[in-house]
Structure prediction request, 288 residues.
Amino acid sequence: MASAPASRSKAVTALLVAPAGLFFFFLLVLPLVVVIIYSFGARADAGGYAPAFTLENYANLPARGQAFFNTLTLAPLGTLLTVLFAYPLAYFLAVKASPNSRTLLLVLVIVPFWTSQLLRYYAWIMILGSKGIPSWLAYLGIADLRIINTPWAVLIGAVYGFLPLMVLPIYVSLEKLDKRLLEASADLGADSWRTFRQVTLPLSLPGVATGSMLVFILLMGEYILPQLLGGGKVFFIGNALVDLFLQSRNWPFGAAVSTALVAIMFVTIVVYMRFVLSRGDVRRAALV
Prediction:
């Protein structure tokens, strides 16, 4: 029989967890259940949802194959490019920068978040447009270069827009790194590259994994970025959902596309996290 203090502790824990649990249930689980139910329904004559049970919506998913292809190729590629740009910056902030300049540089990293995402992408439309970078490159002899409304413009916007979300988790992992391990590696004769490859990088993998998941999840559901910098020529699943729910009013098909997107993201995230974190654990165990 549980003692009175243990029962009170469980009651307090339940009360503390209850608000988050209710929030999670009503704003995440319940809407997801509704979307799944809608995905098996039929389109009403005037648009919207009509009760039914059919797999036709899932059978029609290849009709939005281009949106799935763009999302499933550009989202991982954008995440990888963001890692490549963010890691050197985070490494410099955590290991090389002086304490006085570190705070200022961290503030500069998050400064872009002080303005609207919409305004930032409109600025990139000007920079990547015909009067921006292409016109500058024309003076160097590189003519007829088109960047805006291409996948490259979407990737540039992804790296710019999500860079802070990648830098900060990696910075936290590197900042907590025991610097004595780096000194021990140097004392044992390892050069800088070997120390980075066998000590620094494995111990910072949790930060890389966290930042990658933040960027990847947001990129998979992006609408504004491909709409503005892709110019309607680079469709993501988010653009397809806007078309299905607001213009075509084919809610069941839109729900099926949403459910497929959630399933793909769930499987991808589970596999990625298990792979990355297991390698990090093996490396940490080897160092110990």
